[in-house]
Design brief:
The chain is of the alpha+beta class. It is built from three helices and eleven strands. The chain has one domain (39-199).
Length: 201
């Protein structure tokens, strides 16, 4: 009887420890903020995506090496000046490797809703003159790694803050994205809070 009680106790303790580990490893979206916190995240096929640095353990901690989040400026000094946020997972890759969120003319337009268009590259592989989102992700139906792109009116980016110096910008996004084979997937609960000056230091 004592032996049976001991075995049951070990099983109960093991399952509690296992569930605690699962909870610890469950990734959560960063809060929606407008402070320049340099956070980014979204949900794809029920799984949370946040960027991870090249030597992170995969949960957004003890980062370093190559950053998992970058911001690129395109058409600087022109009426087409825009920003592209690139989020990557270098470690603990789940179902998305990389996402690009391109906000066309954000410096000029500022706060507002940006309707998504298609990713049609211009000459020399320049960014298009419109807003778009693209991801490289695992297909929910086939399991193969696939490129997906936004298309006309397939979602929106809502910029909720843009400071006068074009350094801090924040917002949310959602999108339906389509592969070259016509498979449509969704990105939901997207959010970003960027401080370019802090990010580039």
């Amino acid at each position: 009887m004592k032996k049976q009680t001991l075995i049951i106790a070990i099983i109960v303790i093991s399952s509690i420890a296992g569930s605690c580990n699962k909870e610890d490893e469950t990734e959560q979206l960063p809060p929606i903020t407008q402070t320049g916190a340099n956070t980014f995240g979204f949900v794809f096929d029920g799984v949370v995506f946040t960027p991870t640095d090249s030597n992170s353990r995969g949960f957004g901690i003890d980062g370093g090496g190559t950053s998992g989040i970058s911001v690129f400026g395109d058409y600087s000094g022109t009426e087409h000046y825009s920003n592209r946020i690139e989020g990557k997972r270098y470690t603990n890759i789940k179902n998305v490797r990389v996402i690009n969120v391109y906000i066309y003319q954000v410096a000029e337009i500022g706060v507002g809703v940006y309707n998504l268009g298609a990713y049609n590259i211009r000459e020399g592989y320049k960014q298009p003159y419109n807003n778009y989102i693209s991801i490289y992700a695992k297909s929910p139906t086939t399991g193969s790694w696939t490129e997906y792109y936004s298309y006309e009116n397939s979602g929106e980016i809502n910029v909720t803050r843009k400071d006068e110096d074009n350094v801090v910008f924040s917002g949310t996004f959602y999108a339906r994205l389509r592969s070259n084979d016509g498979e449509i997937v969704e990105v939901t609960q997207g959010r970003f809070d960027i401080d370019k000056k802090e990010m580039n230091n």
